[in-house]
Amino acid sequence: MTNAILLYVGGAVITLWGIAHIVPTKSVVSGFGQTSQDNRRIITMEWIAEGLTLCFVGLLVLFVTVFIGPQNPASNIVYWASAVMLVVMAILTALTGSRTPVLPMKI
To answer: Which stretches within the chain are classed as H helix?
Structure first.
């Protein structure tokens, strides 16, 4: 029971994190200062793509937990794959985002 509750909470947190990532897109892009239209579009695309990825991972964990159950072997594969994806995203952000002057990217 505790495992399921933690999975629900974790899935919800990641989903909300993704939504919170998408909402300030305009201000984040403007934080890069004067850039070309193409660069603004690329930054916008990447910022939204990361937020959507977070939403997808969170919702995937929630849906698998609700509809398949936390004890199913397929569920364990989804949970491990989701954890690996989040770690990869964290490493990518740490290696690239920390080098920008934009505070939300550093965080």
So the answer is: 2-22, 25-30, 37-67, 73-96, 103-106
